[in-house]
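Contributing new records

If you add data, match the layout below exactly. Sequence lines come first and carry their own label; structure lines follow with theirs. Keep one chain per record. Anything else will be rejected by the validation script.
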Amino acid sequence: HIVDSMVNQHAKWLKVSRKLPWRPPIASLNYLLTSHVWRQDHNGFSHQDPGFMDHVASKKPEVVRIYLPPDANTLLSVTDHCLRSRDYVNVIVAGKQPEHQWLTMQQAEDHARAGVGVWEWASHEDPDVVMACCGDVPTVETLAAVNMLRSLAPELRIRVVNVIDLMRLLPEGEHPHGLSDDVFDTIFTQDKPIVFAFHGYPTLIHRLAYRRTNHKQLHVRGFKEEGTTTTPFDMLVRNDMDRFHLMMDVVDRVPKLAAQGEEIRGFCKERLAAHEVWIRAHGEDMPEVTKWQWRS
């Protein structure tokens, strides 16, 4: 809360200083958040929550920016942009653990510049469902869910959307980075269900996109204030933000999967039960989680 207050005062100062012609631009305040809720294996549930993003998102739109790069190359691109910027409060959320590398440097620069986009290499045209992700850990879980759904239901058509710039979800009239309705609909579709895996509290996505989609179309998974000193994947399971819950969300929302629904749900519940047994016996996550790799 002390940091929240300090950032709040700085954002107010920036808002006023922009109107004073004798105030030259200053280097942006860049806040790199690397210790986040999805890694509780050492320091437990004592001090981590994603509410800082909610606090910053409520400030004046001309001042604040929030970025959640999904891999190292996008982190490099976002950080370069933020360090060159002036008169902003930039928040970058990226864990300090080794992660998957999804994009080449050129792809990462293009994606970071766009702020949000369809990952064509992981998507089908004319999708039955949109699986969106925002944050490094949610991106892994979304792609793992996509892999398994493709294996269990090959006829299912999935679009993967990754969000780096959280402010892109706002309408263009409410934030300088906001998307027009036409562009938003082109990315997320107008009528397909959206299963959104988010790094923080789900309510923030609903608040940002409340004018974009109807309540039934958008379903957000995120942090639910569940945690303890445990394995990384168990943190996801405790908050229902793991790959298996995302798969069951898709089954619940895509009529095409009605005939296979019970089979897929049964598979997911069996793997969740196996996870519980494994971590109690070994104190670490299952190899199928720790060694998972994307299969194109």
